Amino acid sequence: MLGKAMLTGLVAAMLAGGAALPVAAQEATDIFGNKIVSGKELAKLIEAAQAHPLGAKENPVRADMPGGQRAYLNRLRCADGKRPTYARVGNFGLGVYQRIIDGYEVLCEGSTPAKSMIYMDMYHPGHKEPAAVPGFTIEPA
Q1: 119: closest CA among 136, 134, 104?
Q2: Is the peptide bond before 22 cis (omega within 30 degrees of 0)?
Q3: Is the pLDDT assigned to residue 84 strictly greater than 70?
Q4: At 104, is the pLDDT very low, low, confident or very high (cuts 50, 70, 90)?
Q5: Where are the domains positioned within the chain?
Q6: What is the mean pLDDT of residues 108-125?
Q7: Higher per-residue confidence, 25 vs 124
Q8: DSSP 23-88
Q9: Whole-angstrom distance, CA of residue 110 vs CA of residue 82
Q10: Is residue 82 helix, strand or coil?
Q11: How far apart are CA 94 and CA 2, in angstroms?
């Protein structure tokens, strides 16, 4: 019979090498245990989302964590060329990429669009969205 310490070490060694895990259990997951969508699966989801305007719930702006969301919003410009103000409203449940999406109220005081809601998905490491949501222009990243 194996002692607890020996069994713990054996399990840790097997997990580190992945040898004892079934293929399904080896899928990449985030800190919440949700599957990380990538590769061809992500490409299909992006293609389907593009049937909707960028920034809609069905096509959230992809960003790299909260800092990436703010960086994207800071690059947006209203019709008058000025930077809009924005505030996070909250999260709006799972989006098309199976991650929680955030909604930001975006205001262009004295310009257009006067008020917008932009939905964002912050779980896309390294992604910097090059396109502007409808009604805005965007500065290069």
Answers
A1: 104
A2: no
A3: yes
A4: very high
A5: 28-138
A6: 96
A7: 124
A8: GGGGS-B-TTSPBPP-HHHHHHHHHHHTTS-TTBTTBPEE-BHHHHHHHHHHHEE-TTSPPPEEEE
A9: 10
A10: coil
A11: 44
CB burial of residue 121 (10 Å; 0-12, 13-18, 19+): buried
Q: What's CA 123's distance to the chain center, in Å?
A: 3
Rg (CA), the chain: 20
CB 59 within 8 A of CB 50: yes
d(CA 122, CA 65): 4
Tell me: pLDDT of 96 over 70. yes
Alpha carbon 59 to its chain's center:
11
Give the pLDDT confidence score for residue 141 in this predicted structure: 87
The predicted-structure confidence for 11-50, as pLDDT tens digits, reads as follows 344 344 444 444 444 567 666 676 777 889 889 999 999 9
Ramachandran sector of residue 19 (left: φ over 0; alpha: ψ -120 to 50; beta: rest): alpha
- What is the residue type of 25? A
DSSP state of 110: T
